[in-house]
Design goal:
Length: about 120
């Protein structure tokens, strides 16, 4: 668990503001509130469920994707530790020909609440 704690802290340091890690969960749904860091095998995902957005932070072995920048989240179909994650996001205005964007993560290793971060304005 120490390696995952170190990895989570390193990803937290990339976010704006000063935050700290809170409780772990085995599953993330849109019924929850707050800010969450989801560590997958190759990347980290920052979910702000109060602001209804998600950002992907690709890891060292991951490739950049069009869904990396913050997007409004539509659904969380699956986000459970030990499983592949899948969620959908709203397209940006210039993506007028799309109904949604989707993302499938690698296996989720940890879901941890982030406390004390301010949402960007």
């Amino acid at each position: 668990m120490q390696a995952e704690d170190d990895r989570a802290a390193a990803q937290l340091g990339k976010l704006t503001g000063t935050g700290r890690l809170g409780e772990d969960r085995s599953e993330l749904t849109l019924k929850q509130r707050g800010q969450w860091l989801v560590l997958s095998a190759t990347s980290a995902h920052f979910f702000d469920l109060d602001g209804r957005t998600v950002n992907r932070m690709p890891g060292r072995l991951a490739v950049a994707m069009i869904t990396d920048e913050g997007r409004p989240i539509r659904t969380i179909e699956s986000c459970r530790v030990g499983e592949v994650g899948y969620w959908t996001m709203e397209p940006f205005g210039h993506e007028y020909d799309l109904v949604l964007r989707w993302h499938q993560s690698t296996e989720i290793r940890r879901i941890v609440q982030v406390l004390g971060l301010e949402r960007p304005s």
